Amino acid sequence: MITENASGAVVYQIKDGQPQYLLLKSATSDFWGFPKGHVEGAETDLETAHREIQEETQLDVTVDPEFHVVLDYDMQNGHHKHVVLYTAKVANDVTITRQKVEISDFGWFPYSEARATLSYANLQGALDQAHAYLTAGAL
Questions:
Q1: What percent of the chain has pLDDT over 90?
Q2: Which residues touch 65 (CB under 8 Å, ≥6 apart)?
Q3: Under 8 Å between Cβ of 87 and 108
Q4: CA-CA distance, 77 to 24, in Å (whole number)?
Q5: Cβ neighbour number for residue 116 with a 10 Å cutoff
Q6: What is the pLDDT of residues 15-56, one digit of tens each?
Q7: What residues does the Nudix hydrolase domain cover (predicted)?
Q8: Taking the model in full, what pTM does it have?
């Protein structure tokens, strides 16, 4: 079985004392998720997360290595996917320039709306863990 390794982050900003989460919609499906992508060459997961966020949104972020969640699942093509998600905070006044070939839409969502918008339960679980981490004092 082929394993595809990917990395990204739950990107957030603080508005009115609460985190707002960045979600991206795929240009090729109705999938809503976090900025992430395939590990290239000898990149670390942290390097991949930073690069993918920059490529997909033009945001230059600092990825928090203190938190991560790992998602492992089998895909319809028979491959196994291993995804590492971190958290990354950005300022409220950032401008997002989406990578149009991969991203058709994006938005900032409060926790409950972000959770309802995410396309898969494993991403909802990752958001739950990130939100718990952030609201427990990492903000």
A1: 83
A2: 46, 86
A3: no
A4: 23
A5: 10
A6: 999 999 999 999 999 999 999 999 999 999 999 999 999 999
A7: 1-131
A8: 0.94
